[in-house]
Structure formats: structure tokens, C-alpha cells
TrEMBL record:
SMART domains: AAA
Segments crossing the lipid bilayer: 12-36, 56-77, 130-150, 156-178, 242-260, 272-290
Taxonomic source organism: Pediococcus ethanolidurans
Protein name per Swiss-Prot or TrEMBL: ABC multidrug transporter, ATPase and permease component
Protein location: Cell membrane
ABC transporter domain boundaries: 332-567
Length: 578
């Protein structure tokens, strides 16, 4: 996992390597200073040798400046390396999830992905900075200080053989308990993110239904759940402070007690004791730094695992090596297709067999939940079939390069969105190189040109996030124009004219018939009038094809179609009558 994540350091590797080198210089000089200090006391101050004091003082001053410069440089490079690492890691994660299928997004949930891209990466950034700065400093300081302490007085330095492992065992236990708790904390962050996103997305509905109070409660609940685990995890981590202090004061007491005795006995110099105490402080300080580093590592290991989980997740959508990069025509064939959503064991489509010829216009109708959207989502491989196969242009959809397939199958989803940017920018999602004439032509076919021109800035009108400043019907027409701009071989409209008035809807159908005769068109609709003129209409009932035929044929032969027709034409509900 560490190696995989470390791959994202890339061009910032040099900064990540320079930082510990500078830290080493800083720490080496820093730990040498108490040794010089001991000499100054024992050989300069006690015998009253002023020349020695001045020489050593100047030497210490220069050393301090070099140490400071090393420390400042290390901070600068470590910040640069860690910020760069986080940038690359975020990019890699984002890049990876672009290949996810709908099923994969459902597997992780969008809120969890957002937390991983933000909070989790921030934790890793902080841990990485610590790793190349503090984590490099602490062990070096520990090694240098213990070595120097043994140089000064090996007997007294034996105290570290007890105090260092005692501290290390304490820290290991704390980390073992703390780490799973932090993993839980971030899972609960996902929950909070979900509540906030849902609330902001549906803020109009929240206000209409006066649900602010309930929404506040949901947020409070999610926050409390985080608080519960977070405070528990932090309480455990904070235990390292009393353990650290206990070991630190115990060591200092030991040194002061036995050191004083030896000075009185004349087997030790006062300067030696001063430097030993300074080294004891350094050793324990380095352990303290290490414990902080471990704390941060504990938090970030949970985050690193969550990121690695996404990075190593193989999308359920696979493309063969020699994938096809050309779709011959708009022919579609479903052969004995069964389908169920992952984690949902109900079969939503049963033994679907349907051949649609290139250029045909097919209406799809059926009661709500009968599987209309599910059926068409299999064509651009938004989901893969469980049984049977779907062919496009005479080839199994799984054999195509996914981009090629989706460039040739344009789908206007039931809940389509526009993105912040101008209308022209939004339409160019279909084809970024489209000329202005092509843009206008697509808008005209979708009956959107007139209303776009009536806006103060026309095609340059700015669309707010999610398309909140255009009406539902206008938004639908813009998303149809966007899909047309791709000039696909197959166009799928999934209930995409539901908010458009019937007159405009019929103008769209006519424009399609007259101007796009070679494009295969699948139109899912609730209104019979939207599919009435189609070459054939497929009636779906509970995931099965109940009938296929023209409007007139179905009116004569299919009772479900008759029911839908009657309920719409007569305004009554024939189900209710039966
Ligand atoms: N992502 C999903 N996970 C699990 N079940 C789903 C999912 N999407 C749809 N379903 C279920 O599959 C069935 C068919 O849904 P589908 O959206 O295809 O129906 P539909 O005919 O398009 O309905 P509508 O006319 O209301 O849009 C429904 O029972 C629905 O609850």
C-alpha cells in the first residue's frame, strides 16, 4: 500500500529526499552542542580559561546558524513535497474513479468518495510532511543523543536501555487500539457528508416541506456519531502524554540522583552531568516527537487504507485488449438478456430478445418501474448484463473500447444535469470542436434555439450549478441538443421530454424524423403521444417484453397498451375501472 501511494510523489521526490538530509545536518549539530557545553563548563568555566570559552562559544554560534538554516530548509522542502504529493494523489484518485461504472459508484457511494478526496488526502499530506521532517529528525536525534550520552558516561547512559523500550511498548499499544477507531471516524464522516450533500441538493424541497428541523436533527445525529468515536480515539491517543512524562521524569530523576552522588564522590565532572541531562531531554523529546508522528500516522493509516481501497478497486467495467474502435452502424440486438443490479437480488430484466434495425425509431413504454431505463442503460454499458448479450453494430458491446461505444451511443438520462458554464460550453460537452453553426443546428433540432436566443446573453448565458436558472423543459431541451451534437449512431431519450409541452415535443419528434433518418432513436416516454409515430413501440411489463408493434397494432392487440392509451386519451384510469 505504501509503495502504491508513494508512486504519487513523482516529480516531488527530490524535495522529499532533500528534506531529511537537511534535517540530518540540523539534528547532528544540535546534538553536538551539549557535548561542547560540557567541555566549556569543565575545561573553560571551572578552570577560568576565558580564551577556551571564547573559541568554543564562536564555534557553537556558527554551528547554531548552520543548524537553523538546515531546519528552515527542511521545512520549506517538506512543505513543497507534501503539498505536491497530495496534489498528485488527488489527481490519481480522481483519474481512477472516472473509469468507474455506475455499479462501482454505488459500491463506494459518492459521499464516501468526496471524503476520501478531501479529508483523507489532507491527513496523508500532513503525515507525509511529518514523515520527511519530524520522523527523520526524531530517530536521528535519538541515535545521536544516545551515542553522545554513552560517549560522555556509558554507565549512566544505561538508563536509556530501560526507558526507551518502555516508552516504545506504551506507544505501540496505544496505536494498536487507536487505529481501528480512526477508521471508524472517517466512515462516520462519510455519513455526515451524505446528510449535508442531500440537504444542499434538495434545499428547495426541504424548504417547501418545512423540513429544516428534521434536517438539522439528521446533521446533529451524524455529528454526534463522529464526536463519540473521535473523542474516544483522541482520549486513547492522549495517553501517550502521561506515559511520556512518567518515563521522562523518571529518567531525569535517576540521572540527577546518581550523577550528584558521583560528582560528590569525585568520579564525575559537573559538566558531564549537565550534558547527560541535556541528552536525556533530547532522547525523551525525540520520543515525544516520535509519539506525535505515530499519532498522526495512526490517523493517516486509516485514511491511507481508504484511499488505497479505491485505487486498487478494479472497475467492474472491463475492456478487452484489442478493443473495437469503430461502430459499424446503429443496429442493436438484445439476446436472452437477464439483468439485476449488484446488491439487489431481484432480476429486473427477464430474457429480453429484441432486434432494432439501424435507423429505426423505437418507442419504449411501460408502467413505472417496469425496467425501461434499466433496459437502455445496457446499450452504452452503464451496466453490464448478467446473462445473454447486447450487440451494437453487430458486435457485443463488451468488445468495444468504452469511449468509442459511448461516443456512438448518446443518452439523455432521465435526471440529466447541466454544469456551471455558458450554454455554449454546456452544449460543447457533446463535441468540444463543434462550430457555432453545428451548435445552433443541434439546438434547433431540440427546439431550444428560440428560447436560447430570447435570453439576454443568448448562447453565452451562464448556467448556474446543476442548471438551476433554467426551467425543467428548457433544461431537457438543452440536454437533448448536447446529446445530438455528438452526432451519435444511436440516440436514447430516457423520458427526456417529460417536462416539455406536447406541441414542442411533437416538433422535436418531427425534426428527428426529417433530419436524422439514419440515426437509431430509442424514446422512452410516459406519454403515448411521444412514441405514437415511432416505427415500433416496445411495451415493457415487469422486466419482460410484453409486446412489440406499431401504435395501431398495439392498440388492437395489447391490453396494457390499450389501458395506458385509454387512461391518457380519456383522462380516466382503466386500471381503476377493472
Ligand atoms: N440502481 C439501482 N439499484 C437497485 N435497483 C434499481 C436501481 N435502479 C432501478 N432499480 C429498480 O429496478 C426496477 C426498474 O427500474 P427502472 O428505472 O428501469 O424503471 P422504469 O421503467 O424506467 O421506471 P420509470 O418510468 O419510473 O422511470 C425498479 O423496480 C427499480 O426500483
Amino acid at each position: 500500500m505504501i509503495k502504491r501511494l508513494g508512486h504519487s510523489v513523482r516529480e516531488f521526490k527530490k524535495y522529499a529526499l532533500i528534506s531529511p538530509v537537511l534535517v540530518a545536518i540540523e539534528t547532528f549539530i544540535e546534538t553536538f552542542i551539549p557535548y561542547l557545553m560540557a567541555n566549556m563548563i569543565d575545561k573553560g568555566i571551572i578552570p577560568g580559561n576565558l580564551g577556551y570559552i571564547e573559541k568554543l562559544g564562536a564555534f557553537m554560534l556558527v554551528g547554531t546558524f548552520i543548524s537553523l538554516a538546515g531546519g528552515a530548509g527542511a521545512s520549506w522542502y517538506s512543505s513543497k513535497a507534501s503539498a505536491g504529493f497530495a496534489k498528485n494523489l488527488r489527481h490519481d484518485l480522481y483519474y481512477h474513479i472516472q473509469d468507474f461504472s455506475f455499479e462501482d459508484y454505488e459500491h463506494f457511494s459518492t459521499s464516501s468518495i468526496v471524503v476520501r478526496l478531501t479529508t483523507d488526502i489532507m491527513n496523508i499530506q500532513q503525515a507525509f510532511q511529518m514523515l520527511i521532517r519530524a520522523a527523520a529528525r526524531a530517530p536521528l536525534m535519538l541515535i545521536f543523543s544516545i551515542t553522545m550520552a554513552f560517549t560522555v558516561d556509558a554507565q549512566m547512559a544505561m538508563v536509556f536501555v530501560v526507558s526507551v523500550p518502555a516508552m516504545a511498548i506504551g506507544l505501540t499499544i496505544i496505536i494498536a487500539i487507536g487505529r481501528p477507531l480512526f477508521k471508524k471516524v472517517y466512515q462516520r464522516y462519510d455519513g455526515l457528508n451524505r446528510v449535508v450533500r442531500e440537504n444542499l441538493r434538495g434545499i428547495r424541497v426541504v424548504k417547501t416541506y418545512n423540513r429544516a428541523e428534521t434536517e438539522n436533527q439528521k446533521e446533529a445525529q451524524a455529528s454526534s456519531r463522529i464526536y463519540e468515536v473521535f473523542s474516544k480515539a483522541e482520549r486513547i491517543l492522549q495517553l501517550n502524554s502521561p506515559i511520556m512524562q512518567f518515563v521522562m521524569y523518571g529518567t531525569l530523576l535517576f540521572l540527577a540522583w546518581f550523577g550528584s552522588k558521583r560528582i560528590v564522590a569525585g568520579t564525575m565532572q559537573p559538566g558531564q552531568l549537565v550534558s547527560l541531562l541535556a541528552y536525556a531531554m533530547s532522547v525523551l523529546m525525540s520520543l515525544n516527537i516520535l509519539s506525535n508522528v505515530f499519532n498522526q500516522m495512526t490517523i493517516s493509516l486509516a485514511s491511507a487504507q481508504r484511499i488505497d481501497e479505491v485505487l486498487t478497486y478494479n472497475s467492474t467495467l472491463t475492456t478487452p485488449k484489442d478493443a473495437l474502435t469503430n461502430v459499424a452502424n446503429g443496429d442493436i440486438e438484445f439476446k436472452h438478456v437477464d439483468f439485476n443490479y449488484a446488491d439487489d437480488h431481484v432480476t429486473r430484466l427477464h430474457d429480453i430478445n429484441l432486434h432494432i434495425k439501424s435507423g429505426e425509431t423505437i418507442g419504449i413504454i411501460g408502467e413505472t418501474g417496469s425496467g425501461k431505463s434499466t433496459l437502455v442503460q445496457l446499450i452504452p454499458r452503464l451496466y453490464d448484463v448478467n446473462k445473454g448479450k447486447v450487440d451494437v453494430g453487430g458486435q457485443n458491446v463488451c468488445y468495444y473500447d468504452i469511449r468509442t461505444l459511448r461516443d456512438n451511443v448518446s443518452m439523455v438520462l432521465q435526471q440529466n444535469v447541466l454544469f456551471s458554464g455558458t450554454i455554449a460550453e454546456n452544449l460543447r460537452w457533446g463535441d468540444e470542436h463543434a462550430t457555432d453553426e453545428q451548435l445552433v443546428h443541434a439546438a434547433k433540432l431540440a427546439q431550444a434555439d428560440d428560447f436560447i436566443r430570447s435570453l439576454p446573453d443568448g448562447y453565452d448565458t451562464y448556467i448556474e450549478q446543476g442548471g438551476s436558472n433554467v426551467s425543467g423543459g428548457q433544461k431537457q431541451r438543452l440536454t437533448i441538443a448536447r446529446a445530438l451534437l455528438k452526432r451519435p449512431k444511436i440516440l436514447i431519450l430516457d423520458d427526456s421530454t417529460s417536462a416539455v409541452d406536447t406541441h414542442t415535443d411533437s416538433l422535436i419528434q418531427k425534426a428527428f424524423r426529417d433530419e436524422l433518418p439514419h440515426m437509431t432513436k430509442l424514446i422512452i416516454a410516459q406519454r403515448i403521444s411521444s412514441v405514437q409515430s415511432a416505427d415500433r413501440i416496445v411495451v415493457l411489463n415487469d422486466g419482460k417484453i410484453e409486446a412489440v408493434g406499431t401504435h395501431n397494432e398495439l392498440l388492437k392487440s395489447d391490453s396494457l397498451y390499450q389501458d395506458i392509451y385509454n387512461s391518457q386519451i380519456k383522462g380516466g384510469d382503466s386500471h381503476a375501472k377493472n
